[in-house]
Amino acid sequence: MTDQTQNPNLATIVHTSQGSYPVIVGRDVIDELGLELQKTGQQGRAFIVADEVLFSGPIRRAQEALERGGYETHVLALEIGESNKNLATLEIVFSWLADRRAERGDVVVAMGGGVTGDLVGFVAATWLRGVSVVQVPTSLTAMVDSSIGGKTGVNLPQGKNLLGAFHQPKLVLQDVTHLETLPPREMAAGWAEAVKHGLILDENLLETFERLAPQMVALEGDAPVEAIRRSVAIKGDIVSADEFETGDRRILLNYGHTIGHAIEAVSGYGQYLHGEAVAIGMMAAAGIASRLGMIDSELVARQRRVLESYSLPIQAENLDAEAIINATKSDKKSRGGTIRWVLLEGPGQATTRRDVPDDVVLEAVQAVLA
Question: CA nearest 106: which of 65, 46, 50?
Answer without folding.
Answer: 46
